[in-house]
């Protein structure tokens, strides 16, 4: 992606996926062969085919993966299991956290395209999950806020790691209050505040402001969980949750939930990884 860009149009994303998939599949095949030798076989194929597990959820860029997965499953004559992108993130986070709640639970999905707190239920088959939105941002996502502010500082997209590195140089802690409405939260005003800060503050302080704003967004969304579910598990999934700053702040501000294991955190690699979750779900489905 060119310097200064903040993302891709869906048509460009689909084209990029189509171009990249042959090389990626070759790399995966070589890595699997090196690890398992020549004796392995493909038992099933899993793929994410939509953003969410709800009717009408669709984005063109998923067509590239579905095409490659369908071709692979057909070639090897094995089952093809379809899941949503969101289900993959949640499954990867649960695996990384080392615990899978037996009943319903809450999950954050915080990424460049999504900023939602979900109530998650297992479907009758026990593999797929449905999720209803409890709270969300109404304008931009936390991931978009981070990337837009990072690009303004000249960082390469995606900007999370670079912006967090800057933020760690700051010792400031900002008092921030998101705009909370009955149907969600607005956070785009934080981008304007950040841009204004660039004239009066150091880049590290401005970067720290962004991560403090994201934390306060999460805190406000946690407030949407009804008191009757105060002991229900909360999973933190999505690329934004690969931030050590945000995780550390959650542990510090919610010590009881963190120490009791009610808050479930994954390692950074599995917070941002959707494909691992899809593979785990496909394995579960194939073993049914």
UniProtKB/TrEMBL annotation:
The yes or no answer to whether the keyword tRNA processing is present is yes
Q: Which UniProt keywords apply?
A: Acyltransferase, Metal-binding, Transferase, tRNA processing
User: Could you name the Gene Ontology cellular component terms for this entry?
Assistant: cytosol
- Protein's GO biological process: tRNA processing
* InterPro entries reported for this sequence: ATPase_NBD, Gcp-like_dom, KAE1/TsaD
The record's catalysed reaction(s) read: L-threonylcarbamoyladenylate + adenosine(37) in tRNA = N(6)-L-threonylcarbamoyladenosine(37) in tRNA + AMP + H(+)
- Domain spans labelled Gcp-like: 54-279
User: Gene3D superfamilies attached here?
Assistant: 3.30.420.40
Question: What would you give as a GO molecular function for this chain, any one?
Answer: tRNA N(6)-L-threonylcarbamoyladenine synthase activity
Query: In this entry, which stretches build a coiled coil?
Result: none
Pfam families in the cross-refs: TsaD (PF00814)
Provide the E.C. number(s) assigned to this enzyme: 2.3.1.234
Q: What is this protein called?
A: N(6)-L-threonylcarbamoyladenine synthase
Organism, as annotated: bioreactor metagenome
Its ancestry begins with: unclassified sequences, metagenomes, ecological metagenomes
């Amino acid at each position: 992606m060119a310097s200064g860009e903040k993302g891709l149009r869906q048509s460009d994303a689909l084209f990029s996926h189509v171009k990249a998939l042959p090389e990626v599949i070759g790399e995966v095949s070589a890595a699997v062969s090196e690890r398992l030798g020549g004796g392995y076989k493909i038992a099933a194929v899993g793929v994410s085919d939509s953003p969410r597990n709800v009717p009408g959820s669709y984005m063109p860029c998923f067509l590239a993966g579905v095409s490659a997965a369908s071709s692979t499953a057909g070639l090897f004559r094995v089952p093809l299991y379809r899941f949503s992108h969101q289900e993959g993130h949640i499954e990867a986070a649960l695996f990384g956290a080392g615990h899978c709640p037996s009943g319903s639970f809450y999950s954050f999905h915080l990424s460049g395209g999504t900023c939602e707190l979900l109530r998650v239920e297992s479907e009758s088959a026990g593999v797929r999950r449905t999720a209803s939105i409890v709270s969300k941002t109404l304008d931009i996502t936390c991931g978009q806020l981070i990337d837009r502010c990072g690009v303004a500082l000249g960082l390469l997209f995606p900007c999370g790691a670079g912006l967090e590195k800057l933020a760690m140089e700051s010792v400031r802690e900002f008092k921030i209050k998101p705009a909370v409405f009955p149907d969600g939260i607005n956070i785009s005003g934080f981008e304007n505040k950040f841009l204004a800060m660039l004239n009066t503050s150091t880049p590290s302080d401005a970067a720290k402001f962004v991560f403090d704003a994201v934390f306060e967004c999460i805190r406000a969304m946690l407030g949407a969980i009804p008191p009757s579910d105060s002991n229900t598990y909360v999973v933190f999934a999505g690329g934004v949750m690969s931030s050590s700053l945000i995780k550390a702040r959650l542990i510090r501000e919610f010590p009881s939930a963190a120490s009791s294991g009610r808050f479930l955190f994954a390692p950074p690699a599995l917070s941002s990884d959707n494909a691992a979750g899809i593979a785990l779900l496909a394995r579960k489905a194939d073993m049914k």
